[in-house]
């Protein structure tokens, strides 16, 4: 209903409701996010055809230069952090995502209209930051990518949503590859049935959310979701 994959709401559930440790929750979240993004791409292409996206290939490349490096770096940090520290980092990032959610739904902003060289440099830096956040939380990063693409490159928000998937998929695969080198990755084999069931539920939820689009006003939905993220951040911060 809000144009995101839902991983930012899934992560606190994996920790607070299902009882997974921080790193295991991130890895499970990343796996399910990857499944949801893969299923979202065909549907998105039906709504925004490839010919509308191809003129903006440079945006994808610019952000990917930074995001794939950020994803590897973020996943490396996550595997080396103490569990207590990772809980704190995840709590702070949930607050960041809540802020991004508000910004993303206040309304499309005007592009910065910068020269090509500064835009490219800022794009790489933004990509690194987004890749780090996406890897640390196990999310696709659309909540950060979409406003970045709209503001930095002046792209229409509907096209930005599709471009964000083109950036998210390789970024997620890089983080996934890095996590696969850690012993905590065994949680995917141990919880395979859980991953399939919850990912299937996410896909069904995405379809239902699409059907319900417009029934609940953003003026009601966004404040409720932001409040949930902030409460989740508080709970994760206190988690032991």
Protein described:
This protein is mostly helical. Helix 6 packs antiparallel against helix 7 (142-153) and helix 7 packs across helix 8 (157-179). 80% of the residues lie in helices and 0% in strands. The protein has helices at 7-16, 22-47, 50-53, 57-80, 83-106, 116-137, 142-153, 157-179, 186-190, 192-211, 218-238. The two termini are 33 Å apart. The longest helix has 26 residues, at 22-47.
Features:
mainly alpha, single chain, 11 helices, 80% helix
- Rg, alpha carbons: 17 Å
Order of H and E elements: HHHHHHHHHHH
Uncertain segments of ≥5 residues (pLDDT<50)?
none
Helical content band: over 70%
The number of helical segments is 11
- Overall body shape: globular
End-to-end CA span: 33 Å
Brief digest:
This protein is an all-alpha fold and 240 residues long. 80% of the residues lie in helices and 0% in strands.
What is this structure's SSE topology?
Layout (H helix, E strand, L loop, with lengths): L6 H10 L5 H26 L2 H4 L3 H24 L2 H24 L9 H22 L4 H12 L3 H23 L6 H5 L1 H20 L6 H21 L2
